[in-house]
Amino acid sequence: MPENITIREKMKQLRCCVIIPTYNNAGTLEKVVREVQEYTDEIIVVNDGSTDGTAEILEQLAVGSWQLAENDRAPRHQGTTAPVTSHESRITLITLPTNQGKGIALRRGFASAIQQGYTHAITIDSDGQHFPEDIPGFIEKVEEEPDAIVIGARNMKQKDVPGTSSFGHKFSIFWFRVETGLKIPDVQSGFRLYPLERISSIRNFYSSKYEFEVEVLVRLAWRGVSILPVPVKIWYGSEEERVSHFRKGVDFTRTSLLNTILVAAALLWVRPFHFARGLRKMSFREIVREYFIDSEDSNAKLAWSLALGIFIGVSPFWGYQMVVAVALAHFFKLNKFVSLVASNISIPPMIPVILFCSYTIGGLIIGTETAHLKYSSGIDFQWIKQNLIQYIVGSFVFGALLSPLTGFTTYLLLALLRKRVRAKEIEHHQ
């Protein structure tokens, strides 16, 4: 786009609107709307069953605008007098009869925006916490990558940030990284720019309250949507100045339950699937180079990480190897990725080998006759069931023997390979 056009014009060309969910924020709502109108009049306000003076304020703002009740299928024109600004008013009002939660309010806003033909939507809270003057930063970011979600990264180190908000901020960043593998500076900020087409592809959200903003961010990340942070200012006034409806006990518990679901889905399905798909696109040489040779971890740490993964992969944790490997790697502060990779030693081509070796070693330990056993590629779990204890004992012992051997071999190979790579790099720079 030409550099000399205004943000208002850029937002029209991008088909970008602003969605403002509100619940009992009569003291700050009008100010927020009017400040947003400095940048666009294409605004959707969702009144989530407010019981204060919000309805009256919205009636005034709705002059010359569109108004929607919850069950309306099409907008109806409200009033014929002059709009609230000198520009053509495009405020859409959506009224929910009862308070249903921020997640529901945002989803109603997204649906309305999509129905009206918008491709992007900026969400901003109505409690005055955000500064609409930061909107141009979002537009600049989305011009770089139109399919990305842009999130306003707040400065949580400023003096007026409540302790509970700072804790929740760090808590959410940690779990978001566990769920997606991504590290971003802010997860809970409600000041965002969403690509609406990607939002519409998600079905059956789990959440309806504040935790919705965590869920939608995680699930967009799972779909490969880039997350671009942009610095934004933040205002935390006194309780009298700014009304917050976040209930520390109930809402924190709801967020924790959601994170439990998302972590389980990430570890059992999403991340292993993405990991396997990514590995298929990489050669063995590329994997070794990226995750071993170029790793910032020491040779010893990488070797221990691989040894742990091998032990878990051989041991009888069938179906849970990856979860156990990642959990133990995190506990022992090892490389979780390497442990996860190594735990996949129990892939179909290797399963008969692992079962046979475990069964044979188990027989030697508990004194069962094993001389008649012959290896076959048809060995499976049904074959093992007849002597389960023998297999379980043998698998642990087999893992305990194999893991240090592979770990030590990995350590020696890494020392040799890294030494050669560094020598070549030094020779190249001379």
Structure commentary:
The protein folds into two domains: 7-268, Spore Coat Polysaccharide Biosynthesis Protein SpsA, Chain A, CATH 3.90.550.10; 282-429, no CATH class. The protein has a nine-stranded mixed sheet, with helices on both faces. With 430 residues, it is of the alpha/beta class. It starts with 6 loop residues before the first helix and ends with a helix. It is elongated. Helix 11 runs antiparallel to helix 12 (321-331) and helix 11 (299-314) runs antiparallel to helix 16. A hairpin with a 6-residue loop joins strand 3 and strand 4 (76-78). It is built from 16 helices and nine strands. It has helices at 7-14, 29-36, 54-61, 102-115, 135-144, 163-180, 196-200, 212-222, 248-280, 284-293, 299-314, 321-331, 336-343, 351-366, 381-384, 388-429; strands at 16-22, 43-48, 65-69, 76-78, 92-96, 120-123, 149-154, 192-195, 227-232.
Reconstruct the topology from this structure.
Elements: H1 7-14, E1 16-22, H2 29-36, E2 43-48, H3 54-61, E3 65-69, E4 76-78, E5 92-96, H4 102-115, E6 120-123, H5 135-144, E7 149-154, H6 163-180, E8 192-195, H7 196-200, H8 212-222, E9 227-232, H9 248-280, H10 284-293, H11 299-314, H12 321-331, H13 336-343, H14 351-366, H15 381-384, H16 388-429
Parallel strand pairs: 1-2, 1-6, 2-5, 3-5, 7-9
Antiparallel strand pairs: 3-4, 6-8, 7-8
Helix pairs in contact: 6-8, 6-9, 8-9, 11-12, 11-13, 11-16, 12-13, 14-16
